[in-house]
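tool=predict chain=A
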Amino acid sequence: MNQKWDGCERRQSLRAKAEAMVHSVSPSELSAQPSDVLLHELLVHKVELEMQNEELRNAHLKLEEARDRYIDLYEFAPIAYITVNRDGLISQTNLTACGLLGMDRAQLIKRRFSQFVDNQDRDRWYRFFLNMMKQAKGDKQEIGLCMNHADGTVFYALVDCLLREAEDAQPLLRIALIDISQQKAANEQIEQLAFFDPLTHLPNRQLFKDRLHKALASSARNKQYGALLFIDLDNFKMLNDSLGHNKGDMLLQHVARRLVSNVRENDTAARLGGDEFVIMLEDLGVCPEDAAIHVKAAGLKLLAALNEPYLLEGYDYRCSSSMGATLFVDHLVEEDELLRHVDIAMYQAKLNGRNSLCFFDEKMQAVVTERAALEADLRVALAQNQLQLYFQQQTSLDGQVFGAEALLRWQHPERGLILPMEFIPLAEETGLIRPIGLWVLETACAQLKAWEKNAQTQQLKLAINVSANQFHEVDFVEKVKAVLAKTGIRSNLLTVELTENVMLKDIGDTVAKMLALKKLGVSLSVDDFGTGYSSLSYLTQLPLDQLKIDKSFVRNIGVTQSDALIVQTIIGMANNLGMEVIAEGVETSAQRLFLEQQGCRLGQGYLFGMPVPLENFQALLAR
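tool=predict ok
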């Protein structure tokens, strides 16, 4: 009840209540004796006093209950309350503070509050405390601190401070201490998810672009050069396809650690996505030539580090990288344009043979534009039947045709005939090689089926080239099986040609797939033999039917003794292993004669016939 106390009214109220209680013994006003009146007054006064005492007792009980509630709220509040005097010593605490700091109240009293502040924040606390002591009474401020529990564990706290005065007019600091460790961890997790790559823990594209924006602003102020290095792992997709995404993820984590350990602390290493990383170098000086020298040295160091072998759950894997570089200063080039430049330079490094560093040049822009147009056209080529198979005859060296190799050509509606070397690398990079390779397989098998109707062609064999991307597909064998079943051809007439490097990429997977293909009846040939790094031990493990001598060795027969010796060795090795051997690139009678003398009976090359369209090839057979 919030009524204002009025002593006179209160006494009158009590008097009235007392009168009512003793009314039954009140003397008649007419007949009462003075002693009776006095006795009556005494009785009323006694009752009044007893009522006053009862009210006082009730008020005291309520006061004690309120005090107990306050103590309970203070002691067991979810917030730690601490009072610190002007010397920084703790003078009061609640039980929550005792639990949070790990000491009993008696141990905390007269202990310095700064003792519980972690070393990294202690100087900040001292400055904050001294500043608070200078403020006016009632001033309120807060600070976030890293705190230490008595057992040494660390927690993060929000420290809310209110300046008060003690009874002796000395300043006191009332502190409300809240443990925000979980909130801070949650915020850090949110920030991690928003700005960092979850796999490698490197900055993601969003955070990198923010740092690039700040770097450009800094460069505008100090006129110092910076640089971007764009890194793409060579043949990463093949690793994913052959060994699985788990191994691919492990490789990306290894790469991230190597990048971070090979750049300066003030440089930024980020993952933009997939197998693409970018490095930002800052403060490279005001001279562009010196900056370029520094960037080249840093890039070559990174390439060397990334070329070291990786151990992926017991699997020894080697991976090269292609790297593009570009300098920046001030705001001469915008952020997105810089990223485009360094991306273009990286693709030029791939075209230069991979595992290399290439600086951006304005001339690259035209090349990239043309490449983008070619890629767009290539995506249309399959749908619009622009791809064709040309056929180059394979013969015995005495001129008897026994088969052909199907060679891919692109009849572009505007550019005319495009040779494979101009678009196959692009198809490999973009993944288009898989649908293209399947088209080649289906078309070749359909042609074998068509040849069955003609006695002159029904025994012809047909060889197709299969890329690494296609061969290492998980379902490659199933696709071959399905095409064979669909066309109904005799599978022994189909030869799959693989390069040495394709076969040795993952020897276990290669052997398993080759055995499965052999089970289907398909013949297997090593294309361009002698140009890779195969060993005799590997060669004996592979279920091969044929070795195909690379044309570079055949071309030099009669020119260099070493190449002639290599050809002789390959022929002898194939014969000893019971394999068929065929020489490609045979262009002269002298070459044919040498091959015959060394025991090679089969050949392919301009001496026998050029690659021609189907109609021309069939016309040649009819002669």
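The chain has 23 helices and 22 strands. The radius of gyration is 45 Å.
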